[in-house]
Design a protein that fits this description.
The protein is an alpha/beta fold and about 180 residues long. It has a domain of about 120 residues: Rossmann fold. The chain is about 30% helix and about 35% strand. The strands form two sheets. The chain has a seven-stranded mixed β-sheet with strand order 5-6-4-3-7-8-9, sandwiched between helices.
């Protein structure tokens, strides 16, 4: 008998040397194409959540697909965390570090009510920079980040440890060594 993790792992395609030599890209589009796999992934993520959630804060872009489905499953609203300049109206933004510089995430200033219970969601956790920027945005808006969930973790890059150090319960369905 195989576990859910084994079944999901079989649906994730690894593309060597993308986007540059030495990187093993974990492609979730193959998992997303499989209706049973997608459903099982969303169910498994939902099973890791304790207590009610008001909002799922999904990070652009693949996080939107997982976050939207998870929000429906949890009976929560969906808060979109986007690249800066992509949202109409008044926003707040946070910078975060990349290997080669910085980038910026934003959300609508009124998207999160004070004390809302918020779950941050994305497809993959690497260094944690993007997820931590999303956490800071939600906290600046007065939201209570109750956790962060990911399909995949690359634990040797330290993102999970960085989130835990920031007081965030971070969990992933799959972990892959290497990057």
């Amino acid at each position: 008998m195989t576990s859910v993790a084994d079944d999901l792992r079989a649906l994730v395609r690894t593309i060597p040397d993308f986007p540059k030599p030495g990187i093993q890209f974990r492609d979730i589009t193959t998992l997303m194409l499989d209706r049973s796999g997608l459903s099982r992934a969303v169910d498994a993520l939902a099973d890791t959540v304790d207590g009610p959630i008001d909002l799922v804060a999904a990070i652009e872009a693949r996080g939107f697909a997982i976050g939207g489905a998870l929000a429906v499953k949890l009976g929560a609203g969906l808060l979109l965390i986007r690249k800066d300049g992509k949202l109409p109206g008044k926003t707040i933004a946070e910078d975060y570090a990349l290997e080669y510089g910085t980038d910026r995430l934003a959300m609508h200033v009124d998207a999160c009510t004070p004390d809302a219970r918020v779950l941050v969601v994305d497809d993959l956790l690497a260094t944690g920079g993007t997820a931590l920027a999303a956490v800071r945005l939600v906290r600046r808006a007065g939201g209570n980040v109750v956790g962060a969930r990911f399909l995949i973790d690359l634990p040797e890059l330290g993102g999970g440890d960085a989130l835990v150090a920031a007081g965030v319960d971070a969990r992933s369905l799959l972990a892959y060594e290497g990057h």
